Amino acid sequence: MKVTLSFACGLAGMVALAGCGKTEEPTSIGGSPGSAAPAVASAAPAATPAATSPPSAPPASSGTLASALHPQLLDPSKLTATAPAVFQARFTTSKGDFVIEVHRDWSPNAADRFYNLVKAGFFDDTRFFRVIDGFMAQFGISGDPAVASKWANANIPDDPVKQSNKPGFVTFAQTSAPNSRSTQLFINYGDNSRLDATRFAPFGQVVKGMDVVNAIYKGYGESPNQGAIQSQGNAYLDAKFPKLDGVKHAQILGK
User: Fold this and answer.
1) What is the CATH number of the domain that holds 197?
2) How many CA atoms, within 13 angstroms, populate the side-chain half-sphere of residue 109?
3) Which residues span the domain enclosing 118?
4) Domain assignment present for 61
5) What DSSP assignment string belongs to 39-101?
6) What is the pLDDT of residues 52-110, one digit of tens each?
7) Where do the DSSP E strands lie in 106-195?
8) pTM of the full predicted structure?
């Protein structure tokens, strides 16, 4: 099941924080559908508000779907390359560009997953769906439901926490269940070192463009429903939350 920087509060095993009245911890994709969302830390913000019943007929999608542009995303089992020891990825967004530098020794499984997702085009045309001022900006749910469903259970093993969740550091979201990281990430806005004790292992850091990250639209807070994003993709977000900022393209630099 998908996880997103959120602690479950009734969202199919992935939305834990949102909608629970807490706003201090992120959670990611992981866990089985219908399972109770895990609560990572007592003081952590939910990744999304309690799930609500999605409309029977999702809004029409705009643009070419990721599964058509990047068919390799439909088979997570083939995206398992080992990442370089250190590499950078540039994210071109609706607010400008920022660069994440990844150190594989900080969190090897996370670095490898991130490297493969960027190379395969996973983050292209995705939205920053949970952005909380002073806390973090969360993203990493595919805008194409067909792709999102393929990654629902494609989790990676936990890594020891070697770095702290300081401003600008990048970490995978997760549920309270072990080994529940999948595709959702968050960039820390503030000093979130309290997350270090709950398996949130940073794997990279924004080394350029943190001003761009800080400018990402925060007006919707935790309102977007992660279950609806996963089942309806960008069609849902564009119809209900048109001001959301998003990733236009991500690429490994030097490749």
Assistant:
1) 2.40.100.10
2) 18
3) 8-51+81-252
4) no
5) ---TT---SSPPP-PPPSSPPPP-S--HHHH-GGGG-GGG--PPPPSEEEEEEEETTEEEEEE
6) 333 334 444 456 788 888 889 999 999 999 999 999 999 999 999 999 999 999 999 99
7) 126-132, 136-139, 169-172, 185-188
8) 0.81
